[in-house]
TrEMBL record:
<dbReference type="GO" id="GO:0004806">
    <property type="term" value="F:triacylglycerol lipase activity"/>
</dbReference>
<dbReference type="GO" id="GO:0005783">
    <property type="term" value="C:endoplasmic reticulum"/>
</dbReference>
<dbReference type="InterPro" id="IPR036291">
    <property type="entry name" value="NAD(P)-bd_dom_sf"/>
</dbReference>
<keyword id="KW-0560">Oxidoreductase</keyword>
<dbReference type="InterPro" id="IPR020904">
    <property type="entry name" value="Sc_DH/Rdtase_CS"/>
</dbReference>
<dbReference type="GO" id="GO:0006654">
    <property type="term" value="P:phosphatidic acid biosynthetic process"/>
</dbReference>
<protein>
    <recommendedName>
        <fullName>Short-chain dehydrogenase</fullName>
    </recommendedName>
</protein>
<dbReference type="GO" id="GO:0005811">
    <property type="term" value="C:lipid droplet"/>
</dbReference>
<dbReference type="GO" id="GO:0000140">
    <property type="term" value="F:acylglycerone-phosphate reductase (NADP+) activity"/>
</dbReference>
<comment type="similarity">
    <text>Belongs to the short-chain dehydrogenases/reductases (SDR) family.</text>
</comment>
<dbReference type="Pfam" id="PF00106">
    <property type="entry name" value="adh_short"/>
</dbReference>
<dbReference type="InterPro" id="IPR002347">
    <property type="entry name" value="SDR_fam"/>
</dbReference>
<dbReference type="GO" id="GO:0019433">
    <property type="term" value="P:triglyceride catabolic process"/>
</dbReference>
Length: 292
């Protein structure tokens, strides 16, 4: 069945993006899958899906990709801002290039892509914009603070955008999954391990404990197929929800933690991730210096 709807999806090189691309294609939509690397989406092209090179960190790249779709189709009915990268590090150890990459990809890329697509949707007086956020946007967590900040920014953008575009009959939906089984975490681990394993890092005494942080997320991951099926049902429901939550921590877990007093949250995270241990080590070393 061919559906007279055009879908543009960012970040289709793997995981959620690739899974959603195949799902929309199966439903009969005219799908445009984009990625900063065309090689990563060659398999989608081979089965008949339109592919585009789009680097969401590059404004001109976004403009070219969106214009290509508009020239071919005359419209974009659904935009899915999915492009994203993970980050695990302590704030003071994060390299500047990682700061730029995460904020540009996870937040500013979605804003710029939305700006480019929304002007066409406004002319048509219809459209759906889906932003792939995360449960990490609920609550700032140590060791993944940069990623949390980028997703929290995306959440705020989504909720203000929803009101601003409602007069034009454009719907805006925020998707907040828990850990999904993709490669996004694995890609960030080598750099994280290298930085924490450096004896010059002030967190080196607890680097083994901190390295367990991403492993916890990996252990809780759920299959991407279940997430995709559930989201597609939600999109095709009679009333599209403003927020869609799925997976571990999305409905309880981190949401519940975010309601607790900040002192209690700090205590829990300090014990869980080794910061209480680091404080004891520092205090012990300080006492030894005094004794000597």
């Amino acid at each position: 069945m061919i559906v007279d709807k055009v879908v543009l999806i960012t970040g289709c090189g793997g995981g959620i993006g690739k899974s959603l691309t195949k799902a929309f294609y199966t439903y009969g939509f005219r799908v445009y899958a984009s990625s900063r690397s065309l090689d990563s989406i060659n398999d989608l092209k081979e089965i008949g899906i339109n592919t585009l090179r789009m680097d969401v960190k590059d404004r001109l790249s976004i403009e070219r990709a969106v214009n290509e779709v508009i020239e071919k189709e005359g419209k974009i009915d659904i935009l899915i801002n999915n492009a994203g990268v993970s980050s695990f590090n302590t704030w003071i150890d994060i390299p500047d290039e990682e700061l730029e990459d995460v904020i540009q990809t996870n937040f500013l890329g979605a804003v710029r892509t939305t700006k480019e697509v929304a002007k066409h949707m406004i002319k048509e007086r219809t459209g759906l914009i889906i932003n792939i956020g995360s449960v990490a946007g609920f609550l700032p967590m140590p060791i993944s603070g940069l990623y949390c900040a980028s997703k929290a920014s995306l959440h705020s953008f989504n909720d203000s955008l929803r009101v601003e575009l409602s007069p034009f009959s454009i719907k805006v939906m925020l998707v907040m999954p828990g850990p999904i089984k993709t490669d996004i975490i694995n890609k960030s681990l080598p750099n994280f391990k290298e930085i924490l394993s450096n004896p010059e890092s002030p967190y080196y005494p607890i680097h083994k404990e901190l390295l367990d942080r991403p492993l916890t997320s990996i252990k809780n991951q759920v299959p991407v197929e279940g997430f995709t099926d559930s989201l597609m049902k939600s999109i095709f429901s009679s009333r599209i929800p403003n927020h869609f939550k799925y997976g571990p921590g999305s409905k309880f877990g981190l949401v519940f933690l975010s309601w607790l007093p900040t002192r209690l949250i700090d205590f829990i995270f300090s014990k869980k991730f080794g910061f209480s241990k680091l404080k004891s080590i520092i205090q012990k070393n300080g006492q030894n210096k005094k004794d000597n």
